[in-house]
Write a structure and sequence with these properties.
With 228 residues, the protein is α/β, with parallel strands linked by helices. The protein contains 7 helices and 10 strands. The strands form 2 sheets. It has a 6-stranded mixed sheet, with helices on both faces. A hairpin with a 2-residue loop joins β9 and β10. α4 packs across α5 and α5 packs parallel to α6. The longest helix has 16 residues. It is globular. The two termini are 30 Å apart.
């Protein structure tokens, strides 16, 4: 599902964020990406949905070659990838229903299809009763569940979560993790960058540890192993 071979990312200011990384992530995997601040985790994640472009190497995601992809084809790549951020990125003037539906509207789905699917995913994330509510009226945990619903509404092959529990208290964090596990059990590949050692050490999945732009550890059912 995700294939990196000798991927290097050097920014225009001369900083090398990713140094010749090679890694393979299969369909249905759940992978934690860990490491100290400034290690290159965010760049590693952003390369996968083409927010950043690799300087060299080979990077393929969901059948797309991300070093050769044309700009006009990037929206098609992004239909295969859902992204969840630490700060939710919801549209404040749209209701819960409209925030999730918007992801389907922009790719031209029919209203009937949109309604059916939006209600399905809001049911999955436990927010079917909040369809008419605006983001400002929701708790942080609820806002994150809306952003997950939006990320999966188009049934992506890959869900990328960048610190999805970073702004949440422990109770909401566990709720989000249970939800991500449920989504993963339905076949969606999940790649999650996190600083939450308790989650990584409790809900065991594959762990990729990055330091100084390099993968220094790649373990099935690994541990966090950092103090931050």
């Amino acid at each position: 599902m995700i294939e990196m071979q000798d991927v290097l990312k050097k920014y225009s200011n001369g900083t090398t964020a990713i140094r010749n990384i090679s890694v393979s992530i299969n369909q249905g995997d759940f992978v934690y990406v860990v490491g100290p601040s400034g290690a290159g985790k965010s760049t590693f994640i952003k390369l996968m949905y083409r927010e950043e472009k690799a300087t060299k190497g080979t990077l393929k995601v969901a059948g797309y070659d991300l070093l050769k992809i044309k700009n006009r084809d990037i929206p098609y790549l992004r239909r295969e990838i859902g992204v969840v951020f630490q700060d939710y990125k919801l549209l404040s003037k749209k209701t819960v229903y409209e925030n999730v539906a918007y992801a389907m509207q922009v790719i031209g789905k029919k209203p009937k299809e949109i309604k059916k699917r939006v209600m399905e995913v809001l049911d999955l994330v436990g927010l079917k009763h909040k369809v008419r509510v605006f983001p400002s009226e929701l708790s942080g945990g609820e806002q994150q569940r809306v952003s997950i619903a939006r990320a999966i509404v188009n049934m992506p092959k890959v869900l990328i979560a960048d610190e999805p529990t970073g702004n949440l208290d422990p109770e909401n964090s566990w709720e989000i993790m249970r939800l991500l596990d449920r989504i993963n059990s339905q076949g969606t590949t999940i790649v999650m960058a996190t600083h939450n050692s308790t989650i990584v050490n409790t809900i065991r999945h594959r762990v990729i540890a990055i330091e100084n732009g390099r993968i220094i550890r790649d373990q099935a059912e690994g541990e966090y192993e950092y103090d931050d």
